[in-house]
Design the sequence.
């Protein structure tokens, strides 16, 4: 069966398509709009290169892009404000003043000893072995605060000051050189003295941290403090040869950062290389048994570190910058807006405002570009949405191009209806043209196409003699496009003739309501007909009123007859205990005999019936039925 332009099509004859076809439901046969889309894309390709040449990006080269995305991810980060604790543990090897001349991993002793000997001694070969110059080291820093941010708020580097405690304990205890005194002359100790330095230090430390990424930071460290310890230890655990002096340390480290969710602090852990110097200014050898008069120890080694920090997290500004580098300007602007609101005193606020302004300027280009991508995918709804968004903030040149694309897109939709109208239902065609009008509201072709569609719909209804409904669509056509005024007037002339014939037919059939409606439509179309048709409408209204009155009287009479039959047909009612005298009499009628007795102020009454199917006797107490005898 051939499908007419507006004949209804069952739901089973439709299927949803996955590309352009989502705009409406199609019949079993498909509608190929690819040639229209291709034509539109050719237009886009011809102009978009010129337009997008005006678009700017924050990164101009590939090197700039990777530099920003890898090493500038944290330019808006929170500075590290406070380090509650920082723990270091590891192993050192030590030597003399020339021990630092070699690399961090080289452990050869060198020519200078870490101990200062008296004038009678020149050798101290017991520490020539690397194993006898190893020491365990533990340090705890606490209360390290970024004091400089109270003077000038910045996040380039984090300069913190704090306090710390460290303990260095030699791993081995080699015997003293041959000929050295290993016991005190006046006091007894368990065992003999051996060489085992143990040094405790309280320090004031400084750290300078640079955080390149959210999860990785590098730092430099310096500590200066007061040291005290012993150089001798007996095999029984006694200590001797106490010294006091100063310690200084330098370190370079690299740390990973872990940011727990919904926590104000973060964990840091990593590795650092350390150079440690301890010098005893005095050594207390009160029994004068040692040839060691001082300590000038230079140590180095690798440590494992662990601690916590407050701050150092990426902010919304960092997320905005990442979006900016990747040309996601809408997301970038949201990030910068939040950053400026959350950190009004941040040192990079002015830079964020600059990037925000740049993002604002590029948003319409991004939206336009996304619209073009949707067009390539034949997703016209999404494309129209992006183009409409781009129109809101576009400059004059871009706005001209956007409006041109909108008109072209609307033309594709209108052309699709013109070419495949016979394969669509009226509602489908109307929806597509309405979509085109929403996309390009100032494009008159959309109004003209919709008006033409309404005229055709009206013509179909006119041929089916649905004159009032046809008039509705003719009015819609006139409302949509003033250009259709001439065509609509011609339709109205034919419509008046049809309505007049219809009114006559309805009058003959005594369908006065429909006849009046047809005449009123003629007057609405041609108000001058009020003079000659007004009396006709009044006459028909009187006839209609007479008919309605007759119908009302007839209905009332029927209702009264039904009610009377209900009253007369008492056989359908039942006697029930508790009924009043009046209710019982409506069912049984008047009794044959009535007996009344008044006892103690209570009235008893008995009704007797000669021939009543409902009851033989009824007994009442105080006018209420209390017993039925059949």
Sequence:
């Amino acid at each position: 069966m051939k499908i007419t332009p507006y004949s209804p099509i069952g739901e089973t004859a439709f299927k949803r398509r996955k590309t352009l076809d989502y705009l409406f439901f199609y019949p079993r046969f498909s509608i190929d709009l690819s040639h229209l889309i291709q034509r539109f894309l050719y237009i886009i390709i011809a102009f978009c290169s010129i337009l997008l040449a005006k678009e700017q990006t924050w990164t101009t080269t590939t090197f700039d892009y990777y530099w920003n995305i890898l090493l500038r991810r944290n330019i808006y980060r929170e500075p590290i404000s406070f380090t509650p604790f920082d723990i270091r543990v590891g192993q050192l090897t030590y030597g003399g003043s020339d021990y630092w001349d070699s690399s961090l991993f080289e452990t050869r002793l060198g020519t200078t000893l870490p101990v200062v000997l008296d004038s009678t001694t020149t050798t101290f070969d017991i520490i020539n072995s690397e194993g006898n110059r190893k020491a365990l080291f533990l340090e705890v820093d606490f209360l390290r605060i970024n004091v400089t941010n109270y003077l000038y708020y910045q996040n380039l580097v984090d300069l913190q000051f704090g306090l710390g405690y460290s303990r260095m304990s030699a791993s081995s205890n080699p015997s003293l050189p041959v000929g050295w005194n290993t016991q005190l002359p006046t006091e007894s100790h368990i065992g003999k003295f051996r060489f085992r330095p143990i040094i405790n230090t309280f320090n004031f430390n400084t750290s300078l941290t640079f955080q390149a990424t959210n999860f990785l930071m590098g730092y430099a460290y310096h500590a200066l403090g007061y040291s005290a310890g012993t150089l001798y230890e007996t095999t029984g655990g006694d200590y001797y040869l106490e010294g006091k002096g100063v310690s200084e340390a330098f370190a370079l480290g690299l740390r990973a950062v872990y940011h727990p969710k919904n926590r104000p602090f973060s964990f840091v852990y990593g590795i650092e290389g350390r150079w440690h110097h301890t010098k005893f200014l005095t050594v207390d050898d009160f029994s004068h048994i040692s040839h060691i008069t001082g300590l000038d120890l230079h140590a180095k080694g690798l440590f494992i570190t662990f601690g916590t920090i407050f701050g150092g997290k990426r902010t919304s500004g960092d997320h905005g910058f990442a979006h900016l580098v990747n040309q996601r300007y809408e997301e970038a602007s949201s990030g910068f807006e939040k950053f400026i609101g959350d950190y009004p005193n941040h040192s990079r606020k002015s830079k964020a405002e600059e990037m925000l302004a740049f993002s604002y300027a590029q948003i319409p280009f991004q939206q336009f570009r996304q619209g073009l991508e949707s067009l390539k995918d034949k997703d016209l709804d999404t494309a129209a949405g992006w183009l409409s968004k781009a129109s809101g903030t576009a400059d004059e040149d871009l706005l001209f191009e956007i409006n041109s694309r909108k008109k072209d897109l609307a033309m594709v939709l209108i052309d699709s209806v013109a070419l495949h109208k016979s394969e669509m239902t009226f509602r489908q065609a109307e929806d597509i043209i309405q979509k085109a009008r929403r996309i390009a509201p100032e494009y008159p072709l959309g109004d003209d196409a919709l008006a033409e569609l309404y005229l055709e719909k009206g013509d179909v209804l006119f041929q089916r003699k649905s004159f009032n409904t046809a008039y509705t669509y003719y009015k819609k056509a006139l409302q949509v496009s003033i250009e259709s005024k001439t065509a609509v007037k011609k339709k109205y002339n034919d419509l008046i003739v049809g309505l007049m014939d219809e009114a006559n037919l309805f009058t003959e059939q005594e369908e006065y309501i429909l006849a009046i409606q047809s005449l009123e439509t003629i007057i609405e179309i041609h108000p001058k007909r009020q003079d000659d048709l007004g009396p006709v409408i009044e006459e028909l209204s009187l006839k209609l009123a007479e008919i309605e009155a007759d119908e009302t009287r007839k209905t009332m009479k029927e209702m009264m007859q039904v009610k009377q039959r209900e009253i007369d047909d008492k056989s359908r009612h039942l006697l029930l205990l508790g009924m009043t005298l009046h209710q019982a009499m409506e069912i049984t009628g008047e009794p044959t005999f009535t007996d009344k007795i008044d006892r103690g102020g209570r009235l008893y009454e008995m009704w007797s019936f000669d021939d009543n199917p409902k009851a033989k006797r009824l007994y009442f107490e105080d006018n209420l039925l209390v017993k039925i005898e059949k």
